[in-house]
Write a structure and sequence with these properties.
alpha+beta, Ubiquitin-like (UB roll), Alpha-Beta Plaits, Rossmann fold, 3 domains, 13 helices
Amino acid sequence: MPKIIIDGQTVECRSGIPVLQAALEAGLAVPHYCYHPGLSVVASCRLCLMEMKMRDPKTGQMDWAPKLFPSCQTPVRDGLEVRFCSDPVRDNQQHVMEYYLLNHPLDCPVCDKAGECYLQDYTEASGPATSRMVEDKTKNPKKDIGPHTLLYQDRCVLCSRCVRFCDEITGSGELAVVGRGSRCEIDVLPGQPLQNPLQGNVVDLCPVGALLDKDFLFKQRVWLLRSARSVSPADSRGQTIWIDYNEAGIHRIRPRYNEKVNEWWITDEARFGWKHVHRRDRLRQPRIRQGTALQPARWEELPALLRTWFSQPSPTVPNPIAAILSPMLTCEEAWLLAKFARSLAPQATLVLGHVPTVGQDQTYPKGFTIKAEKCPNRRGVETILQHLGGPTASFQEFLGQAVEGRFRAAYVTGGYPNAWVMDPIATALAKIPFLVVHDLFPSALDAVAAVQIPGSAWAEREGTFMNCDGLLQPFERALPPLEGVKADGQFFSELLGQPGLFRARTVRETMAAELPQFSEVFIPRDLPKHAH
């Protein structure tokens, strides 16, 4: 790995990267707008200029060159010496910042980007203390450029990140720089609104408050939010995300850098697919059928009741018990539920639950793929089923066996963000005399369920998902379960008779003793602020 010298400090860096990226990865706060490691380099903002030592053609000695160089366009090489802490560099930054502030509106108090805006940070660090602007500022109208995005053109610094994203990452090309000179601005092409399946990333890419998410507009201040590291349940790829939340709930989802999966980007499905967590029709209390109706029950009475009903022998049914492990469960939850079923009936049938798919995989020019499989943990549940062995069945096989009356009792888990109980599923499950349904929302199964258990949403749980490539990724709990709801992992632990609070890491360590695949998890590295 090459070593370069930045402001007198030796920095070991990756080969082939620009000096700017090396400085950012070393934790140095070098101002920049247009550079992004996932996009092509245009070197247009001129904020990242640096001094660099070069060999004097007359004396042959290494000395500081008389001009400044864009650090985003200069590749690292062993022995290179540069500096950002010098008067020429600071003078350049101050003059460039003054230019950016000429027409920029002073509307930070109402801007959604306030608190995480590059322009605010750089003005504080490098900008002029006062403005010499005496003319009226140029004003541009706000633009509605797509179903999810607004463009506040007044705030734009023409870094062109959004344009390059639509050209290079999605290949859809909806955005362009139009006009010339001082009349340049970002706009959508005629008849092409910004609505590609990755379009929300342009809001993250914007270093100022020019591109804004309509869903988040004027909803919260970023300094009032906390962030949890999570993995999106939107599809089987396992996109890593930040959940930004507070006491009022989730407010937005942002991409979390992951070099093995989604890099800097996430799909709109992952970005906007959290709204089901706050749906008002969520189940909020366990209920047990008494006569023809489901009546409220206490969580404390459920473990003994379920163990009694599931452990009763049946001389007429060969495999009387089944446990349907939804691919929306975490690996730890699926493990506990499977162990519970097998602890009561060693020949209990374990079933991988319904795997929703939509269309075909979509792959974009630089390799980003949106998976057709819309669940996060099918691979993890399959791994557990293969290890445990014994009677197993696909979901369709299970439905066929249920219609034939081969099960006396079944524990069915759901947790899907959308309706999944279609008529064939409801008809088949109605044949099971003792049906336990553990789900988020009411469904057709409520009419036949003996026990209805409210589930916790993915943002209310902790655990790991194994993506379609076998990568095991942990995620944190952002929100507590709804009032009246118990976390799935906690309830499954109580079913097994395990004392204490459920902790995903503790369960995973137990699993790893039998399954080496669960001994290591992949945790993406956190990038420094402004390093992406």
